[in-house]
Amino acid sequence: MIKLPSVQDKLDRKFLSDNIKYQDEGKVNLMPSGVLGGIKLLDIPFNGTLSLLYCVLNFLNHSELGTMATTTDALTSAPVYQTGLMANAPDNLDAKISSEIHVLDHDSSLDNDGVLRPTEEEKATLRRVSGSIPWAAYMVCVIEFAERASYYGVQFVFSNFVQFPLPKGGNGAGATPKGTQQTPGALGKGLTVSSAIGLLFKFLAYTIPIFGGWLADTKLGRFKTICIGTVIFGIAHLVLVIGAIPSVLQAGQGMAPFIIGVLTLALGAGMFKSNVSPMLLDQDTQKGLIVKTLPDGERVILDPEVTAQRLALAFYGMINVGAFFGLATTYSEKLVGFWLAFGLPMILYLLLPILLWLINKRLVKYPPQGSDLGRFFRVIGTAIRKNGFKGFGREGYLDAAKPSILAAEGVTDGHDGKQVDWTDDFVEDVKRSLEACTIFLFFPVYIMNNGGIGNITTSQGSAMVTNDAPNDILNNFNALTIIFTIPLLSYGVYPLLRRHNIHFGPIKRITFGFLIAAVSSAIGAITQWRIYETSPCGYYATGCEIGTGVAPISIWWQIPQWAIGGISECFCNVTALELAYSRAPANMKGIITSMYLFATALSAAIQQACTASLVDPYLIWPYVAPAVLGTLLAIWFYFLYRHLDNDEYVRGGVADNLGEEPSVDRVQSSRSGDVTKEVREEKV
Q1: For the domain bounded by 135-369+431-651, which CATH number is listed?
Q2: What is the pLDDT of residues 526-566, one digit of tens each?
Q3: pTM attached to this predicted model
Q4: Domain residue spans in the chain?
C-alpha cells in the first residue's frame, strides 16, 4: 500500500496557512478510477470540525484498501462541499474500493462520467501530455506505410518513364548503360508531356478523395471504403507492370497501359487516402481535457490535441518511411529496368490486404450515419438568407442560423422551408470547418514551393553530374529528412516547448512551414542559375548533347531543396491533418479531410496551367515566383488566423471548455461487436 501524504502537514499548510474559511457543512469525496470510475463510493459529512476530517483521513491512511496509487495534490486544497452518505455505500470497503483513490481538488471538476476536468487556472499551469495510444492506431500507421510505399514507389519513376526515351545501348527495359550520364527512360515524350501526365495524376489522386470521403461518411464507413480502394490499387499495380515489360516498350506500346494504370491508381488512392487518417484518429476516444497524476506525483492534463499531434506525426512519419521505398525503385529503373521499378511496389502492396484483415476486429469503427453535408449547406444558406452576402466569413456571421436565435425570433424553418434539424453546437462545427477549409486554400502555393512546379526539379537533376546515381534519387531525401525530423519534434522539441509553457500553436507551425518552403524554392532558383551558367549548352541545358551534356555540378547540391521541403511538411501537412479532423463535424471528417487533400489537386491544376513555361531558358522563374508569393502569403496567413492558436481543441463536437454550458451534456460510448456508436444526451 502506498501511503497518503502526511495529513496533518497538509491540513496545517492549506487549511491554516492559506486562511481558508470553511462552511459548516462539506464533504470529502473518495473517487475510485478504473472500473468504478465516476461512482461515489463514500460521502462523509461533518459539521465544521477539522478533527473529524483528520480522523477520517487517518483511518483511510492506515486501512488495508488494496493496491493504491499516490493521491494527487488535491489533498492540499480539498474544500468543503455539501453532500450526504450514499444509501448504497458498500459495507466492506476493503473489498469494494477499486485500485485508485482520487481526492478531488477544489479547482478540478468532476463531470457526469466521473472524469476529472481542469479549471481555467489548471489549463494555464499544468503540463499537457498525450493520452494513451491504442495498439490499433499504430497498426493503421503500418497500413499507411504499405500503401504509401507502393504509391510513391511507382510515382517517383513516372517522370523519367514518360520524359526520356529508351537509353541508347541499354537493355531495352529502360536501364542505362554503365559509365554513362544517360537518364533512364521509356516513352520519350518530353518534359511538357511528362509534367502534364504527372499533374493529371496528382489532380485526380487528390480530387477523388472528396468522393471517397463522402462515400465513407454516408454509405460504407471508412474501413469498407479503404478495402475497396485497396482492391483498385492492386489492379493498377498489375497494369503498370504489364505496360513496363521490355517487349511492350520496345514495340512502342507502353503508353496505353501506363495511362490506364495511372488513372486506376489515382482512383484507388482517392478511395484510400481520405479515410485512413480519420480512421487513425478515431482510435483515440478521449473527449475533452482530463487531469491525471503521474507516478512521480506530477499532475498533468491529458490533452486530445497533444494525442492527435503525436498520432499525426507518427502517421506522417510512416508515410515517409513508405516514400523512402522510392530509393529502391529509382535504382531499379537505372540498373535493371522499369518492369522491376513497378514490380517491387506491387509486391509490397500485397501487405495491405493482409494487414487490413489482421486489424479488422481490433479497430474502433464508426458506422456511416449519413453525412452532415446537406445540413452543413442548410446552415450556410439560412445565414445567407438572414444576413445576405455582406460580411460573409466574418466573426458571428453564421450565428444567425443558430436554432436558439431563430427560436427567439419565432422562426422554426431554415432557408429552404424545412424544419431546422441542427443544434447551436453544429453551427459552431460549421464555423470551424469553414475556417479550416479557408486555411487549406493557402496550401496550393506552398505545395509549389515544396518540390517545384511539375517535374521541374527532377528534370533539373538530369542536367547535373550524377555519376551513376539516378537523377530522381534526390526525392528520397525529402522522406529521409521527415523520418528524422518527426521523432525529434514529437519527443524533443514539442515536449520541451510545453514544459516551458510555450504554445507553438497550429497557425504558428503552418506559417513557419510556409516560410521555410519558400527558402527551398529560392535554393532551387540559385541551383538552376548555376546550371545555366556552367552547362555546355548555356541557358538551354535541358537535354543538352554537347560534351557530357551536363553542367559540372553534382546532383547532390539538390539535397537542401528536398531536405528543407521535408522539414516544412512536418509543420504544414501534419498540422493540416490535425485541423481537418478536429474541426470537422462527426459525420463529415472524411469530407473535410478530403478538402485538405483537394488543395494538392488545386495546386496541380495551377501547375498544369504553367507547364508551357517549363522550357529553357526560363526555368529560373518557376522557382522565383512561388518563393516570393509564398513568403507574402505566409505573412498574410499568420495575421489572418493567428487567433486560432488560442482555440481549445475540439473533437466530435464536444468542446474542451467545460466551464461553459454545452448543449451536449455528455458523450457515451456503447460497443456492439467492434462498432463504437456515439450516443448524445441533449441537456434538458
Answers
A1: 1.20.1250.20
A2: 999 999 999 999 888 888 888 888 899 988 898 999 999 99
A3: 0.67
A4: 7-106, 135-369+431-651
